[in-house]
Amino acid sequence: MSLRDAGPPIALVVVFGIFAVLSPDFRTISNVQNVLDAAAVLAVVTCGISFVLMTGSIDLSAPGIMGASAITVALLVANNRNDNDLGLIGVAVAVLLAAALGCLSGLALVVLKVPSFMATLGVSAVGLGVATLLFAGVQPNITDPMLEGWAVERFLGLARLTWIAVACVLLGWLVQRYSRLGRYAFAIGGAEEVLALSGVRVAPYKVAVFTMAGAFYGLAGVLVTSQLGAGLVQAGRGYDFSAITAAVVGGTLLTGGRGGILHSAVGVLLVTVLTNGLVQVGVSPYWQGGVQGLIVVAAVAAAVIPQRRRNQVTK
Amino acid sequence: MKFTSRHTGARHTAAVVGVLLAAGALTGCTETAAGSGGGGSAEAGACDPADVTLVGQVRNESNPYEASWLDGGDAFAEQVGLTQERLTYDGDSTRQQEQISQLLAGDTECLVMNILPNGDSDTPPIVEGAQDAGAYLVTQWNKPADLNVADYDHWLSHITYDGVESGKQIGDALAEAIGGSGGIVALQGILDTGAAKDRFAGLEESLAANPDVELLDDQTANFSRAEALEVTKTLLTKHGDDVKGIWAANDDMALGALEALQQAGRDDVAVVGIDAVPDALTAIEDGTMTATVSSDGPWQGGIGLAIGYCVATGELAVEDIAGEDRAWFAEQFLIQQDNVADFVSPVTSEDDFACGNLFSRSQGAIS
């Protein structure tokens, strides 16, 4: 890890240290477990979004895709709306549907040349539309013991879905490090033209990146359903921007070509520690939003000063 | 459905008409003030019951409460042998105004509208439009405080609920459930909304009346189930066993808090919310939740149409509606385990919508 990659982890340690000094409630084991459990869903979403950001595109489709997957999985596992009881197959179908929606974003980008910003916003609306149709006015509550267990049952002190998130981060890191898809994602963000000139067909890799991102959002939607015990159309509300924030705070550049899954994971922890710590030290809710925003901007500024010329939204 | 087919075809014209109407509204203001009222005033009350058009408009049908509102409108329409046009605008203010413009561009003489404005600032253009076109309008929940219903003769009534009262009702129910003493935490709604402010003010009144109940912490979860889950988990690690009760400004947050309690393995904490969404009623039946408050959505859907219908058909004259019934707080109902069965499948009663009975649920004028 180079020196300039060390900024976000240092910021994480500093923020954690400050809260630990300020609040005895913050530095308990149970609160650290709580922070890790709370980071799980955001971590999975951020895994997906990091690959898209690495290629230099942006992805706002998380809320719609998560909503569609949340409702789908809630209707396919044991629930109060119908007699389905598909268990893991239901989870798989929801993730596949989400991957298909992600693929749609990628196709709109490379085939129809719609900018990723608009394409993914559109796909988010499509996902919310699908979710609303499936919702049909009655909230599906899940009764599937496996899915409910993910949020409740613990292994080595952490909820099962936290371990699922850890597995996702690991998987994302392996893909980024060892697969052609991961290496090309970096290269597309760094210098797409060079890659194209050297004879690589870029388009399929872009579609693959969006498809994989969609699958991660789908799994995140399943995790939210497990946590809430119900499939919500709004399951993914706000996750698009919090995931982008986490990725950028962790050192993934919006211009692409830099950062990665582990950076983003640090960003997720930083954002989650911040949310939790402000409550634990007793900052008034009227102040929290503003204080959190300031700290995030300060953290990003401190982390990216060496590369600030590159940290602008393009493509 | 009726609307969507028209929508695609006539969208363009509607936009043009909308602009014309807006222009008309600007010049119309002064005329209205000078004259004795807008468009259809002269023939008010002359409508044949069969000619009345009933329209109910809410944000979306994916919200159980708003869907039940439109069902209540259907029930009233059936009662008088008509059908209700169901409109939804997905919480999009522009779309709401577009739909209203389109309605007002049609035949408005016997048009009755029961509208849920998206926000306070969406109400004035709807009111001006209805006044100019001579349609009968009832609004609910949102209006700017300085917009006076009595200044208009086609804006018949505005109905809302006293958030301070509901916040206090569930606060008192929570205090009782924890035996009158102990620590509670509060989950607030979106902090800059009137509903969140009023409901929290109600909790503060309740705390003043129950001095042994201590508010350990108040946080916002923005009316969201998912946010409430995370915030509650954090508060439970912060305050541990001191938390005996959770006050939530709506049921979605209460349901999120219930999940957090389940995940933390706590079953000794009382939870209250507001809105009476179906899942909350189930939770109250099961005994996992303590109380919620209902505004009675089906009644809201029916009453607005009933007021308009009674005036349009001449059974009630606008001048005869008492000043205190032009903008009023309607009765809301505290639901606990002993009476939850009455609310699980709410039905409207024909008597509630009789012309002589329209304002029987009034808890007083909006001050």
What's this, in brief?
The complex is a heterodimer of chains A (315) and B (367). Chain A has 315 residues and is mostly helical.
The CATH topology assignment of chain A is ABC transporter involved in vitamin B12 uptake, BtuC
Rg of chain B from C-alpha positions? Answer: 22 Å
Helix and strand sequence of chain B: HEHEHEHEEHEHEHEHEHEHEEHE
What is the CATH-assigned architecture of the largest domain in chain B? 3-Layer(aba) Sandwich
Q: Give the proportion of residues in helices of chain B.
A: 40-55%
Strand content of chain B: 15-25%
Largest sheet strand order of chain A: 1-2
Count of folded domains of chain A: 1
| CA gyration radius of chain A, whole angstroms | 19 Å
Q: What is the number of helices of chain B?
A: 11
Q: What is the helix fraction of residues of chain A, given as a range?
A: over 70%
What structural class do helix, strand and pairing data of chain B support? alpha/beta
Q: Which protein chains make the most extensive interface, counting residues with beta carbons within 8 Å of the other chain's beta carbons?
A: A-B, 34 and 30 residues
CATH class call of the largest domain in chain B: Alpha Beta
The first-to-last residue Cα distance of chain A is 28 Å
Explain what you see.
Chain A: It is a multi-pass membrane protein. Chain A: It comes from Promicromonospora kroppenstedtii. Chain A: This is ABC transporter permease. The complex is a heterodimer of chains A (315) and B (367). Chain A contains twelve helices and two strands; from the N terminus they run ααααααββαααααα. By secondary structure, chain A is mostly helical. Chain A has a two-stranded antiparallel sheet. Chain A is globular, with a radius of gyration of 19 Å. Chain A has a single domain, classed as ABC transporter involved in vitamin B12 uptake, BtuC. Chain B is of the alpha/beta class and 367 residues long. Chain B has two domains: 2-161 and 296-331 and 345-365, Response regulator (Rossmann fold); 163-294, 3-Layer(aba) Sandwich (Rossmann fold). Chain B is 44% helix and 18% strand. Chain B has eleven helices and 13 strands. Chain B has helices spanning 2-34, 64-79, 93-105, 123-133, 163-177, 194-209, 225-239, 251-263, 278-286, 297-312, 341-344, and strands at residues 53-58, 84-88, 111-115, 136-140, 155-160, 182-188, 213-220, 243-248, 270-272, 292-294, 327-330, 333-335, 362-365. Chain B has a seven-stranded mixed sheet, sandwiched between helices. In chain B, strand 6 (182-188), helix 6 and strand 7 form a beta-alpha-beta unit. Chains A and B meet through helix 2, helix 9, helix 11 and helix 12 of A and strand 7, helix 7 and helix 8 of B.
